[in-house]
Design a protein that fits this description.
Layout lengths: L7 H9 L2 H9 L19 H4 L6 E11 L2 E10 L2 E3 L8 E4 L4 E3 L2 E3 L11 H10 L2 E6 L4 H6 L11 E4 L3 E3 L6 H9 L13 E3 L3 H13 L5 E4 L6 H5 L15 H10 L4 E4 L3 H10 L3 E2 L23 H9 L3 E3 L15 H20 L3 E3 L10 H10 L4 H16 L16 E4 L13 E6 L2 E2 L5
Parallel strand pairs: 1-4, 1-5, 6-7, 7-8, 9-10, 11-12, 12-13, 13-14, 14-15
Antiparallel strand pairs: 1-2, 2-3, 5-16, 16-17, 17-18
Amino acid sequence: MKVLLAGHFAALRLIFGALGALSATACARSAPDGATSAAVPATAVSTARVSAGAGRNLALVNGRWLVGDRFVSVTRYVVDGTLRDRFRGAPDSTLDLNGGFVVPPFGEAHNHNVEAPARVDALIARYLRDGVFYVENPNVLPRSRTALAGKVNTPTSIDVIFANGGLTGSGGHPIGVVRRNIAHGGMTAEDGDGQFYWEIDNAGDLARRWPAILAQHPDFIKVYLLYSEEYERRRADTAAVGWRGLNPALVSDVVRRAHAASLRVAAHVETAADFRAAIAAGVDQVAHMPGFRGDERVQLPDPAPYTLTDADARNAARRRVVVVTTLGGAGELDPAGADSLTRRALDALHRRNLSTLRRAGVRLAVGSDTYRDDSKAEVRYLHSLGVFSDTALVQLWSQETPRAIFPGRAVGRLGVGDEASFLVLACDPLARFACTDSIRWRMKDGRLLSALP
């Protein structure tokens, strides 16, 4: 089943009649100047010859490994799917990395496209080709997730966590997504409340429905806050259907219940007020930057409602909240075209908010919320803003984002005892970020992946 989420900008353009132009823009993205998208040489990656599965070991020589903010030339060993710095005896196989630059695989902390359509095999191949091994899906039909069994979370595929249906108020987002998919034959009415989302209007609803939410075995909980500073007005406004969310007063109760079940909570936000409400309620992750798509019409006549303060950032940093970017949709707007004013306004807002968060030491993660893509275009947009150095952006994408998705796993690191998953690049990405496209080899869980299409 193909669920029409299509990215925040594309979905809104569909509503306002200009989806075609944005889709063409999204599909026409090219590699950065000077970058190459090196295919994995089939002769170099025969998994039968060099993989280090259970009971096998592999020596990795002549590699330069990312340690913190620099590359170090060391020999590593893969033993039972983990990295070691020494090995007694002769290894089963040796792989010469030929001076390649070794980095952890990249992450995608917000994408709904890992579901169960016919194209899932090609989608997984694309993620692996781009070096994106770790994905967070913050809203999906439980039956779609079930259909992915054996397709994801295996040593030769991407690893994904799922929130299942998100918690919202009556008539709240993502009800519009369901209605559009029903109209296109991708969903039925039964896929709405209790499946793709949960309508909760008061504490009684939450208490009554919570056992059923847990019974669907989510990996984390998603709550929706949309213009929560206007919650009372929007709740009674029929024109606000799809542009409202959960009562912000209920979020702390959701967090309490989720944490008691050892589940994290991620919050969809639109405005700075939503951000504040989410932080005050104790969420673990903010799934968007405020103003990530501008206002309801993908415009930004006034950035003030979406602008974060230093106090906002300090509160998020103090609580160790992870903030996911999802800003790349602005990159779909032509800076020299009809949307140039909106593009410049969004760029300025995003630079300011990112700088505010970074100055306070807030934990960030790369996420795109772009249904037709992975996080590759998102990091290109972040790079274009000039807020991050090449080194900082490589660390964000390959170290901090995977750890934000899987905080309990030894990912996003290349030290002794960490998972043997990494990318080997042809050139130094700390000196030139476009080198993140030049992937020579990909290893996942001690298995060197075969050539990808």
